[in-house]
## 1
Amino acid sequence: MTEAATPIPDRSNGRERILDEAMQLFAEHGFDSVTVRDIAAKADVSVGLINHHFGSKEGLREAVDAKFIRQFEEVLDSAAPSMGQMRMEDFFAWVDDWIARHQSTWPVTVQYFRRALLEESEWGASVFEKFFSIARASIDRMDAQGLLRPDVDRLWLPFLMVYLELGTSLLDPYVTKILGRSGFEADLWKRRHRAYLSLIYRGVLPPKDRARKSSAQEAN
Amino acid sequence: MTEAATPIPDRSNGRERILDEAMQLFAEHGFDSVTVRDIAAKADVSVGLINHHFGSKEGLREAVDAKFIRQFEEVLDSAAPSMGQMRMEDFFAWVDDWIARHQSTWPVTVQYFRRALLEESEWGASVFEKFFSIARASIDRMDAQGLLRPDVDRLWLPFLMVYLELGTSLLDPYVTKILGRSGFEADLWKRRHRAYLSLIYRGVLPPKDRARKSSAQEAN
DNA sequence: TCGCAGACTGAACAAACGTTCAAGTTTGGT
DNA sequence: ACCAAACTTGAACGTTTGTTCAGTCTGCGA
């Protein structure tokens, strides 16, 4: 009330302020648990303004989703053109680099992403498919170059790669509980990146055991 | 109304019927989106009975959680004693076998598990930690037996293994969209099981390229 | 047969919810 | 200076929510 109309927040624009605060609240507590009054209070506007701009709470959700998608896919799409001739490592590096550049806004982003994926919003599938097709594309490329063993399962490998890629996004709260800090902090991130590249390429067995183990497996 | 008081459902016991239907509804739509009236209607009881047995909606949630935990952890714990001397493959096989035996009730189970992980309920962390400690235990065992290359990241490997283990549970709706059927159907399940064991042990690179690739990586 | 403890009902209630609307304020072009 | 359009307000409304409670029904030991 007595505070200035536009104290700290991003823009004096009320609409943008609603969008930002709504995204943050949805990310933290989930869509159903957040009331329009919560949002109005946090954005320092009246409840009426929300429905004036977005028609309804559902309309607000769609607007927030749209804004998030724009931010998120813009990067994935800008990577897509060169993706055809991109190596798997390069794609992962690309994503990691982007993340590093957006690390300040990342906590909200990853939480929102997490909820969107688990709540099965319509575009969750589209994002998943994007990751999936990128994984499969680089797999196909590796295959064409003879970089994939013949016995590797072509059906499941891209899914497993996506699991590894999205795992920390989906489970970071629990990772944080065990590690004491978020798996998205720069050093942990880089280290994980190397770890899963190593895992995908070479697995964990030492060279000497590979022959023995694989022959034993083929005996089944 | 005109239907019999105990038509089809599991037991004539109203309390159990509430518990079962609530678990199913929570799994499908999430706790906040389900009303006590929804549950009462589906369980064919009055709204008063729910609060009579469980005190409140929150009390019902705890009871449903408790029931789910009992079912879920009972198996994990029964596996834990022999886990110390269990090979990683055996543990995965164990879990898969259990799943196969519970495949009829699995859709609800996995959905509930998924939501519990998303909503970060208190026991979600406990389940995650259980998976994590089992993964780490088998990694330690492999390490002691010299079955882990020295350069493998001991910090992230258990997390990555858990990602692979839980990935399909968390993302099955999207897998289903791409594959046309659930990744939990028996044949797909078995095939995925083999695929991630192979990935963890040996990665994807053919033997001939391993030396070249690893030396190139170490040059960084 | 009595009585009572527990299962069960459903109307009623207060609070919280999303939504509406008449009215006030600010903005920008003329 | 004027006005129309857009922005913004907050009280009010109707609905839905979780919860309560007086009362009914049922089974069972005394």
Note: The mean pLDDT of chain B is 81.
## 2
Amino acid sequence: MTSPAIRSDAARNRGRLLDAAAGLIAERGSDIDVREISRRAGVGMGTLYRHFPTKEALLDAALEHVFTSWAEQAAAARTGEAWRDLSTFLGDALSRQTASPGLLDAYCQALPGQAGNTARRHCRQQVAPLITELVQAARQAGELRSDVTDEDVSLLLVALGRIATVVPETAWRRVLHVALDGLRATAATPM
Amino acid sequence: MTSPAIRSDAARNRGRLLDAAAGLIAERGSDIDVREISRRAGVGMGTLYRHFPTKEALLDAALEHVFTSWAEQAAAARTGEAWRDLSTFLGDALSRQTASPGLLDAYCQALPGQAGNTARRHCRQQVAPLITELVQAARQAGELRSDVTDEDVSLLLVALGRIATVVPETAWRRVLHVALDGLRATAATPM
DNA sequence: ACTGAAGCGGAGCAGATGCTCCGGTAGGGT
DNA sequence: ACCCTACCGGAGCATCTGCTCCGCTTCAGT
């Protein structure tokens, strides 16, 4: 019959490769040597390229896991208090970025208008709807200024992500605080 | 006599190398091939390495020019209206970044706490005093919130620099607007 | 057990990139 | 006009990195 029945070692190695790639992305961003990925996964290079047509494909697959769990945890953290939810979402996202520098890099590569890479775009779509919801809720609660879009918030997040990898947490939290104050309805100055 | 008297062709070639490097940094950031620099300068690789011990040294020298002229033009644009000066400084800096993606990258590499590279740090010091002045003036005028430091503003600039290279000007100007609103004394929420 | 096809490992290829070396060239003081 | 020396150019070296190739291994259906 047509029962391809994936071999057990193949499945195991595929998982190891994804874990290794995700770990390395977390530690050092998306600029990694394929040899290092395969070494960390405990497999050979041939195995890597049997499972993924290209290095980029592997990184995309690994990132998708990362983004999915980010979206899940962020959704679970919602309390219903709109403003609080929005600001903790941003703070948590930046914390996450501090711990794994590749995260918002990947998100940035998926911004509309960026060249190509549909897989990265798919990563972004794991989180984008959540941002839209948080923004809408905060706006309807009258706490977020009404002329701010979800894309503005996305961009703000990506921007802050750059400094989150570079300066200590106390420093970027100050800037986040300022940015949040700028997002408040009470601070609005005509665009 | 002790008249080293730099040869004319040497001086000319050194200038060409600096121009070529600055141009390429502007167009594509700091990740450039030495072969391309020397080709654009119309000289050979040997010439490049006669004048600069390393690629980094050449880039540092080229960036110093760029930063100097940035600082000069920004200082010349001051009007005395504190808030206006601060916000146009930020807008102009981001415009500059849009035109030459390597700019704030270099500035970012010179942030305190970053690893090494004294030359890059020297680049930052071309602009840092100006930021300090602008921040002090705006604060004394009572328009900038009092709990914000010049380093906060630097970080904000670097952060916004990331998106300035990636989305159209209308998009990053919106985010800048929000950030500026957050900097206003009237928007301040306790840190 | 048996067997054959899917899977595995890592040497090696091709191209990119920072830098060096050295035979030849040309500036500029005499 | 001459010559010495600083200077020039670019072939070539060493290294890195994404990817392929192919002989050997191991799973899983019988």
Note: Residues 7, 9-10, 13, 38, 43-47, 50 of chain A lie near DNA strand C (CB under 10 Å from a C1').
